[in-house]
């Protein structure tokens, strides 16, 4: 049997199990464990290690609706990554803030070109035992959305092209289930009305904080263009990508990087990242 035929059969088997799991999820939408059945359906489709589902609403704190598979020792750091200082550099959060349409997105599709070599990736992904993310984003109305994050741990293989295609292909069904959940089960969800954790940032402040953070960081010593270059470094852009985004030459980018490191008294991206996160927390 050829590899193509074998892959096709595996995909068909996975889709058969997915549809059975999806039907089970629809049947349990009114139940407190409804989202658990959706997470189990994903596990039938591809080898997903863990799942996080969040509700985001305008002028209210994001709320964690479901978390499965994240080791206990990483949970606090994961929440910090999404809901406190770390989110300001998260590619998915930034993409949503910039108007990312609902759909399915592997991290590699929305992250800057040097992101996987960035200090943010090392700190908020690898140190948390996570190697890869994929996301669904579903709009409920103009003020609210639900995001579904699928994580691959360091011990798991990255999803291949066929598996990502499967996740993308079922996006309309995921969207339909999530919207049905918002109408039938969301208001009865056991976590929905829990008091928000201290330090969560309201959605209405996201845009203001992102812009203020990058415009004021190092403002006493850095020029405006040097701050822009720092922002590109922190977000995971290469010299080439930074040059394109800032509409300057790669040589000028290197000069800005050299100057900002000198003025901040640092010598590495990890020190720049540490200074930025400390500055955010103090602000």
TrEMBL record:
Gene3D superfamilies reported for this sequence: Winged helix-like DNA-binding domain superfamily/Winged helix DNA-binding domain
Transcription regulation among keywords: yes
GO biological process: regulation of DNA-templated transcription
Record-annotated HTH luxR-type domain positions: 215-280
Pfam families given in the database record: GerE (PF00196)
Keywords from the UniProt entry: DNA-binding, Transcription, Transcription regulation
Keyword Transcription included in the entry's annotation: yes
GO molecular function terms noted in the UniProt entry: DNA binding
Annotated InterPro entries: Sig_transdc_resp-reg_C-effctor, Tscrpt_reg_LuxR_C, WH-like_DNA-bd_sf
Cross-referenced PANTHER family: DNA-BINDING TRANSCRIPTIONAL ACTIVATOR DEVR_DOSR
Name of the protein: Helix-turn-helix transcriptional regulator
Organism: Pseudomonas vanderleydeniana
């Amino acid at each position: 049997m050829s590899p193509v035929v074998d892959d096709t059969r595996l995909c068909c088997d996975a889709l058969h199990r997915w549809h059975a799991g999806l039907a089970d999820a629809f049947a349990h939408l009114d139940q407190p464990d409804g989202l658990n059945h959706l997470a189990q359906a994903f596990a039938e489709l591809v080898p997903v290690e863990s799942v996080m589902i969040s509700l985001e609403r305008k002028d209210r704190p994001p709320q964690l609706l479901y978390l499965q598979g994240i080791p206990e020792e990483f949970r606090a750091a994961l929440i910090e990554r999404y809901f406190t200082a770390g989110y300001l550099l998260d590619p998915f959060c930034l993409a949503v803030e910039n108007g990312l349409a609902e759909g399915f997105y592997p991290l590699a599709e929305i992250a800057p070109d040097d992101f996987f070599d960035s200090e943010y990736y090392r700190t908020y992904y690898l140190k948390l035992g996570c190697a890869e993310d994929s996301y669904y984003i579903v709009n409920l109305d103009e003020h609210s959305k639900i995001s579904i994050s699928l994580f691959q741990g360091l011990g798991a293989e990255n999803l291949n092209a066929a598996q990502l295609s499967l996740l993308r292909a079922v996006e309309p069904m995921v969207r339909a289930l999530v919207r049905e959940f918002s109408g039938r089960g969301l208001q009865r969800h056991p976590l929905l009305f829990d008091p928000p954790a201290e330090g969560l940032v309201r959605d209405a402040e996201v845009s203001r904080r992102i812009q203020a953070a990058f415009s004021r960081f190092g403002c006493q010593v850095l020029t405006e263009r040097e701050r822009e270059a720092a922002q590109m470094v922190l977000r995971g852009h290469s010299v080439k990508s930074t040059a394109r985004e800032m509409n300057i030459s790669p040589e000028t980018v290197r000069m800005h990087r050299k100057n900002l490191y000198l003025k901040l008294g640092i010598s590495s991206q990890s020190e720049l990242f540490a200074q930025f996160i400390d500055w955010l927390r103090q602000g």
